[in-house]
Amino acid sequence: MAANAFVTTIREIIPGLPLTLVLTAVPLVLALVPGVLLGYLRSRGRLAYYLTGAYVTLFRSLPVVLQILFAYSWLPSLLAGLAAARGWTVDVFAISPVWYAIAVLFFNTLAALIEVYRSAFSAVPAREVEAARAAGFAESRVFIQVRLPQAFMFALPNLASATVNLVRMSALAYLMTVPEMTGRARMAAGLTFDTITAYGVLLLAYVALCFLIDSAYDLIYGRFMRRLHGTAGVRGLT
Amino acid sequence: MIRVTDLTKMYGSLRALDGVSLAIEKGEIVTVIGPSGGGKTTLLRMIDLLEPADHGRLQFDSLDVDMHRPGRTKKLAVRRRIGFVFQQFNLFSHRTVRQNIVDVLCFGHGWPKRDAEAAADEALLDVDLADKRDAYPAELSGGQAQRAAIARAMAARPDLLILDEPTSALDPELTGEVAAVIRRLASDGMTMLMVTHHVDLAAELADRVLVLADGRIVEEGFVHDVLDNPQTDRTAAFLERVRPPGRSGL
User: Fold this and answer.
1) I need a surface site. Which of A113, A158, B25, B217 has the fewest CB within 10 A?
2) Would the CB atoms of B138 and A228 count as touching at under 8 Å?
3) What's B80-196's CATH class?
4) B92 and chain A: CB distance < 8 Å anywhere?
């Protein structure tokens, strides 16, 4: 029975993997550029610091589950009302909940990335920026050649955390009936009446996925170790 | 070649530079000495327009710059004519030694990549670092890093080389290799403005010495006149402190 439930659960969960990956990759890719730019501004100007700070604080303090419930139950009605008032011919209720999930995850990831890049840009040594200026770099060049690549290097460990967090957040999309891995594991549990096996397999699937993501980031980060610590640092790690 | 007139810079109520004027002729080596906090580094950074002055005028050959509001074009024009060597090397840590030089030539001076690479290789040969061209700054000793920084500053053949305490961050045994490179540049006729605590090096290389204290030039003159026969108590006290005991002259 347990073996059967195990196989059934795996069969149910695997088709949910692409959606989990979409819910992770799309918000991450969409948030990357605005995250870099707003993170940079947050590390520089006082006004930008407070404005982005308000955004970051808002999304950090709102439970994601609350945002999901809001986006799923209230937002479509709000949009439908707006569409009716403006005479738009869009059927808001036909929009896939996947888009609402992506929107919620995007706004949360953006808040995380703004903080990741703020600290990364702050870590770029001011003296290297000054060296670039002294060498005749225009400010745009200083940003592209010195600030950005170094900030990326410093941001990598926190980007890995943000990505893994995003995978975990994506599980909440099941509340919007999005059939990603968690949603499908619930279906499997319904089919097999074996919740322990269903959620046990789901747990392993998330652990494996997050392990792969972490390993991929480690691989990329390893390429920068020499630049950060010299060969002694690389040897120290291996 | 370069003339700075009435340069003043305040940090809050602190007068970092107070009406400093100086001139450097082509091929001349001018050394700035003086106590810490006297405004030496500020002076160098102001000349490279890395910070706006409160007041001051910079003439670089035919280029006339208001140091308070230099404007982007003049700022870049001045910086491209000056090579700047920093006390802490300030190499780009994410780029190899060779890429450091290539980046400066391509993005600072607009050179085509191929020319920049050839010039970088040549510059590294000049400072005896060809074997370290693919090393990252974190993999270099202090002396090697400073030689790389000098190669980077010199690669575009600047009209003026500014050196801000180029040997201060180095162990005494590494100071020699950097001093040797500076000596070679001096013998090639490079125009230099150097801040140093290394009075012996100043005595050996410089044509003229400026003594900067409390943001003012308290003494200036030919190197041997100033170092052997200081005219002010400030200079005498400073020389007393930085020279090994028992040595009065050079």
Assistant:
1) B25
2) yes
3) alpha beta
4) yes
